[in-house]
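Observation: inputs received (chain + N-carbamoyl-L-aspartate).
Thought: call the complex predictor directly.
Action: predict_structure
Action Input:
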Amino acid sequence: MSKLPHVLSIEGIDNTAISSLFAMADALHPYALGARVSNVLQGAVLINLFLEASTRTRISFGTAFNRLGGSVRDTTGFQFSSLAKGETIEDTARVISGYGDVVVLRHPKQGEVANYAAHSLVPVINAGDGSGEHPTQSLLDLYTIRQQLAQQGKELSAQTVAFIGDLRFGRTVHSLIRLLARYSNIRFVLCSPQGLSLPPEYSVLIRKAGHTLLETENIADALAAADIIYATRVQQERFADQGEYLLAPGSFRISKAMIERFCKQEAIILHPLPRDGREGANDLDASVTDTSDPRVAVFRQADNGIVTRMAVFLHVMGVSLEQVEAESRSSPWQNHRPPAGKPASGL
Ligand code: NCD
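Observation:
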């Protein structure tokens, strides 16, 4: 059997593939917005298998597939899957292979998406495996970083990127660090509460690639140093001991006042979302939005999930942009969404 184009780790996607994915994503904005429609994936079925909580990842994968003309079947929650009845992952993978053409899988256990893929007869995309990786999130994160930098006339090289929050369990952090480490001359600033620091394999990777690495527990220092801020939620669900969770973050909140006081004028503030909007939560404060502060790019980042995931599907399904366009027309229906920001050029 020929090797299936699974997307399991960001390591499996080289820089040439990334350039072509981003060029496709640039051209897909009219489709993501519904201004143009394409039926290129008509007849194809995506199985969205989410065995852990998700809103934007599940819906954006589904919408991306729908926007290309494909159909989507969803299952959400481990307790609603047959794995809860004791079915092996091998059996699930084999059965689902008979039902759809591509699978997007989120699993609470690190490594389990790769295990599933080993038994799947159709391509599998990792939508998050425990505290392991979340490769498509890092693609949309990098796409957004380059888009926002391009609007400032800047390149990634020589930028300071601060990762703030739960760097131990945050799989989006892990995938993005693997990805950024491939580029040159980045200053990484790591800022996490005690007990939630980055696993050593990632700091080794950063150093080996020749980047600068600074660590601090002081959020003000991290905010002040950064051109790009990547804030994250404390991953409560990953703590085996909830008592440890309650002790972990101390006070790790990024408020509007702190951004105004410490951040650079041109800082780009990102977060994979969801952020914890409960009172007293240790996260990027929910009152900080793009309307109150244009440096906050978190919703532009989430919007980019559609074009980047459309590009990933085209890559996995072996479809070119020319084929998308050949199967397309302008949309006859009224789209009420405001126009998005300009797509990044020169990616
Ligand atoms: C993240 C995840 O699930 O890893 N969310 C997402 O996919 N955008 C981050 C999180 O849950 O905190």
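Thought: report the result.
Final Answer: Residues 56-57, 128, 134, 137, 171-172, 233, 235, 272-274 surround N-carbamoyl-L-aspartate (CB under 6 Å). The two ends are 35 Å apart (CA to CA).
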